[in-house]
Write a structure and sequence with these properties.
The structure holds two protein chains of two kinds. Chain A is built from no helices and eleven strands. Chain A is an all-beta fold. The N and C termini of chain A lie far apart (about 40 Å). The mean pLDDT of chain A is about 95. Classes of the chains: A mainly beta, B mainly beta. The interface of A and B includes residues 44, 47 and 108 of A.
């Protein structure tokens, strides 16, 4: 069974750093891109970008370039989303999802990680 | 901001047919396939329709998708209470070189 399991909810202060994770199982982790999607409270879905776990090649949406970092460790089938300096506006649910091709659908999703940034 | 436009909401009674429109442009829907996602309350999105009109295994055949030009539609036939959710269209955008989601439509079952 294909699964993407994300790390638990986080509460952080502005200016702090954070890394959340997404662990894949039930499939060959390096055969699919991992994409990240943000959902701010009460809002719609926003594509943040993707990473190829094979070589850690990344592509960021311009809206998120420079503010987040994607990484992956294929040896443990895990992808990461990282912030070095959190802002209150980063408060959202973050989803990882699996994608077979560059423009293809996201066929399996993680359960989401709620990140709350508040002083 | 979203470049794919959907109606904010729609509703129907059990058994009815409802449709959700998704309007885009030549750089997204007009030149790439459309996918639809269902997000039940408090849960992660789920792939409902891919490549304009294909259903993943396990998705009931009362869900159907279509595309014409720069617009797409999702139809739900025989509406059921468990279909109450938010629905998002999505496609790759060649101009933005990124994946874009629709604004989302909330379906209410009366």
């Amino acid at each position: 069974e294909v699964q993407l399991v994300q790390s638990g909810a986080e509460v952080k202060k502005p200016g702090e750093s954070l890394r959340i994770s997404c662990k894949g199982s039930g499939y060959s982790f390096t055969n699919y891109w991992i994409t990240w999607v943000r959902q701010m409270p009460g809002k719609g879905l926003e594509w943040m970008g993707r990473i190829d776990p094979t070589d850690s090649y990344t592509y960021y949406s311009p809206s998120f370039q420079g503010h987040v970092t994607f990484s992956a460790d294929k040896s443990i089938s895990t992808a990461y989303l990282q912030w070095s300096t959190l802002k209150a506006s980063d408060t959202a649910i973050y989803y990882c999802a699996r994608q077979f091709s560059v423009a293809g659908p996201f066929d399996y999703w993680g359960q989401g990680t709620l990140v709350t940034v508040s002083s | 901001q979203s470049v794919l436009t959907q109606p904010p909401s729609t509703s129907g009674t059990p058994g009815q047919r409802v449709t959700i429109s998704c309007s885009g442009s030549s750089s997204n829907i007009g030149s790439n396939t459309v996918n639809w996602y269902q997000q039940l309350p408090g849960t992660a999105p789920k792939l409902l329709i891919y490549s304009n009109n294909q259903r993943p295994s396990g998705v009931p055949d009362r869900f159907s998708g279509s595309k014409s030009g720069t617009s797409a539609s999702l139809a739900i036939s025989g509406l059921q209470s468990e279909d109450e959710a938010d629905y998002y269209c999505a496609a790759w955008d060649d101009s933005l070189n990124g994946y874009v989601f629709g604004t989302g439509t909330k379906v209410t079952v009366l």
